[in-house]
Structures are given as structure tokens and as C-alpha cells.
Amino acid sequence: MKYTEEHEWLRVEGDLVVVGITDYAAQQLGDVVFVELPEVEAQVAKGDEVCVIESVKAASDILAPVDGEIVEVNEALVDNPGLVNEDATGEAWFFKMKIDDAGVLDAFMDEDEYKDFIT
Amino acid sequence: MRCAIEARQCRTGAGMTEPKQLVLRDLHAELGARFVPFAGWEMPVQYAAGVMAEHLHCRTAAALFDVSHMGQLVLRGAEADRALEALVPADLLALPEGRQRYGLLTTEAGGILDDLMVLRLGDALHLVVNAARVAVDLQHLRAGLPADVTLEHERDRALLALQGPGAGEVMAALLPGVAGMRFMDAALFEWQGAGLRLTRSGYTGEDGFEISVPRMSAESLARVLLAQPGVAPAGLGARDSLRLEAGLPLWGQDMDEGVSPAEAGLAWAIGKARRADGARPGGFPGAQRVLDELASGPARRRVGLLPEGRAPMRAGVELFAAEDDAAPVGRIGSGGFAPSLDRPVATAILPIHLCGTGTRVYGALRGRRLPLAVAALPFRPAGYRKGS
Questions:
Q1: Which member of A31, A49, A62 has the closest CB to residue B50?
Q2: What is the mean pLDDT of residues A80-90?
Q3: Residues of A in contact with B1 (CB under 8 A)
Q4: Cβ of A6 and B52 within 8 Å?
Q5: Domain spans of chain B?
Q6: What is the DSSP code (8-state) at residue B269?
Q7: B161-174 residue pLDDT tens
Q8: Cα–Cα dist B238/B50, whole Å
């Protein structure tokens, strides 16, 4: 698993990258009450706001970690936004992206580096 | 992930003076509080349980809030009540001993300088005012009160709020005398040598108490309250969602100097004796406009709004009468997720022709126009302990 400075995790699944937010981010956010997902087949560029997460107290965005195409979104989050608090790094993935070059993920933090980053 | 709210706090935090620290700061930290700067204070926004759980706990049991940031003021003098009536359009002469009343400080233009609680105990009137307005209120009161009325800012007292359907039982276990208190009663108690000033009121829509306690006794009182069965701490986040569900306005969001009492839906806070046909009509700043609006009705008014979707719409979201209108008709004053209703809710001041229940307006959110329906306030009925 790789981690971004925006507290997203990235997991390679075949030629796809699965994206979610870290346990730390979910904890900081508090109770998530609303999730808005991107359109499937949308072409996104690194840094684009692709998801909206609203907790009881704040609104946040998930930024696209890399350039690519959204190929699948986790509709379960729309009906049950609280999943983000229950299982941020597992069932509460947000979207899957198809990227041209898996090598771009090398630039992101590994788990130890992310742990250092948040402490 | 990028958090919009945190970014805003960073910006407003820059260049500000150091926030004041609550006397219970260490206790909050021990309870897992996360702190935010608010109105010049570093305040616990939530504890380990989180806003949702704290909110729901307050609705079902009892929640303890530290609201020591609020300003506690005391007026003393032979005719302090009459003097304060020159600034507050409430019937203060008729405020009985041991009773509290909600009131407004009005501006010359008929706007709202601040909202406050006034209670009478012995020879004193005690005021509780918004933290962000303490300095403004003090200046306004000093300028408007005669020399023989003294004004004191009680910086040596903390203010706790115990709120929820379980609050009465918890409080009575410590102070049996509170059992006879009803909504908006005020009384003095002695607890372990400390003088407590209690009111049966709050800002959550629940039964409960606000407890003014000397700073040096605040921690021991808070610890004893937290040790009672059913009591859990709650932060500013839950306080905000609770008061929003209860339809209670927040100065600075739902009203300010540019909003009149009638526009804010607070005409009821103008005492009968102070109205055009009352015993002491007018005689407060902005009386002409305020009383005219009571007679003829305001051109706009604060209403509840229910977003039709699940997306929360927060303070500042612009509102439109039609999906493709260019000019907004207002903006959301308070808005967010309502845990007890499991849905987003909001309030706004809208032109009177849009204030009918069920009227549809549109909020501009992330480049789209999303529908909301006008709804009656409060969103949730209050659980106050009324009756004689």
C-alpha cells in the first residue's frame, strides 16, 4: 500500500489503483454522513477534486492522486457513509483508477514513511 | 484528502493573538478532546466519542459542556432593571426574583448587537453574553448605563452546562434543591464551599442546567458530574448541531447588526410591556423600526430548510428562488447534519413570500443548484421542564 500527503491510500489491483482515505484521516474527519463519488469513465488529472466527504462538522475533498480514468466507484458509501469510519482501509474504498504507468506510484510514501508523516 | 474547514481555521488563526485557555483545559485533554480556536478561546470541539455520539448522548442521557468562554456580567444598582431596559427590549421590571429571560441588545438601526440571558438574583442582574461579543457588549453597556449602575465582568467564574433528559436527576443527586426548579428558573446553591449559580436552561433544546462556578471549584465540580451515571462530555461540535435542531439562532450566523428581531424570528423576545400598546412602549435603541416591524411584519424572516438530498448545506451557501435565477434571495445562516433527525438541516433568512412551509428554494453547492424545502422551526420539539 502507498500513501499520499493528502492522507489517501493507494493499492494496486492488477492494472488498477484502488483509492481510499487512511484510518488517521477518517478519525480526524469524525462521523462521515455524506459521500459524493465521481462519474465512472471520468478522465481526471492529479489534484482534481474527485470526491466529496462530509462529516458532521466539516466538508472535505478527495483529490485524484495521479492522472487516469475512473473505472469503478464504491456505491456502498453513498448508502452507508459511516463505512468510512468503520473500515477506512478496507471496505470503504472510494474509487478505482486505470493508470498508464504503475511506476508513478513509486513516488508515494510507504507505510513507515506515512506513519512518520502523521506523527 | 483536503479539509475545507481546517484550511479556513488556519487562515483565520494566522495573525490572531494567542487564544485564551479554559480553566478545565487539562481535563478536556485528559478526556481526549480535540481543540479548535473559537471566539478567542481554545475550545474542545469534540472528545473521543465524536460529535455524533455526543449529540445523541445529550438527547438520551446527559452531556456536560464547558461553556466558560461565554461572558458572565453582573449589573448592580437601585434601578439596574430599568436602566437595562434602555438597551434591551424585554420586560425586565417584571422579571421576578429567581427567573431568567432571553433578551437582545439592539442597535440604533434596529439590528441585533448581541443576544443574551438576563436573570435576577437578589440585588443583581446577571447577564450571559456571547464570547465573541463580550468586548462590544461591555462597551455598549458602559456607554448606555447610568453611573449608579455598576457593571462587572466575572472573569473568575467558569460556566458548565449539563444538558439532556437525565440532567435533572444527576443535578438533584448533587443539589437536592434543584428538583423544584423549572425551565428558566435561577437559584444560588452552595456545593463543597463554593457558591454556584444555576439556571434551568441551555442551548440544546433539552432540559438541563447552566452552572456558574468559581474557577477554582470548576474542575472538582466537572469531575463529580462526569462521574455520575449517564453523564458524558460533549464539545462545541455537538452543541452546534443540538442548537441547530432545536431551531436556536447563533449570533454572527443567524443574526447580526444587520438583522432585526422580527427578521431573526425573535419577535417573542420583545416584552409585551415594551411594545407599541404596552405599559412602557419603546425606549430602546432602534425601537421605531423594531416596533413598526412587529406591527406590519418584516420583509424577510428566518426559516428552517430541509435539503431534499443527503448533502449537508452549511453556512454561507447562496440560495435562489428558482433553479436558474442569477440573483440570490439569501444565504444559509446555519446548516449541517442533524444527528437526531439523520438528515441535513439548515436555516436562512428569506424574503417573506418564500417563507411558507414547503416552499422550494435552491442552494448553490459545488456548481449545482440543489433543492431545499422551507420548514417550521424547531426541527425537533424541545424537552424543557415547563409547568408550575
A1: A31
A2: 96
A3: 6-8, 21, 25, 29, 53, 60-63
A4: no
A5: 64-223+255-298, 299-380
A6: G
A7: 999 999 999 999 99
A8: 9
Residues of chain A contacting residue B53, judged by C-beta atoms under 8 Å apart = 31
Inter-residue contact B339 to B52 (CB < 8 Å)? yes
Q: Residue B58 — φ and ψ, nearest 5°?
A: -65, -35
Which residues of chain B have a pLDDT value below 70? 3-16, 388
Instruction: Tell me the helices (H) and strands (E) count for chain A, helix number first.
Output: 4, 9
Q: Does A117 touch chain B (CB under 8 A)?
A: no
Domain A2-100 has CATH 3.40.50.720: no
Residue B77 is which amino acid?
Answer: G
Tally of residues, chain B:
388
**Partners of residue A13 on adjacent β-strands:** A16
We find that the CATH architecture of domain B64-223+255-298 is 2-Layer Sandwich (3.30)
Span between the terminal Cα atoms of chain B, in Å: 54
Boundaries of every domain in chain A: 2-100
Domain B299-380 has CATH 3.30.1330.10: no
Residue B378 buriedness (CB in 10 A; 0-12 / 13-18 / 19+): middle
Q: What is the pLDDT of residue B221?
A: 98
ipTM for the complex shown: 0.88
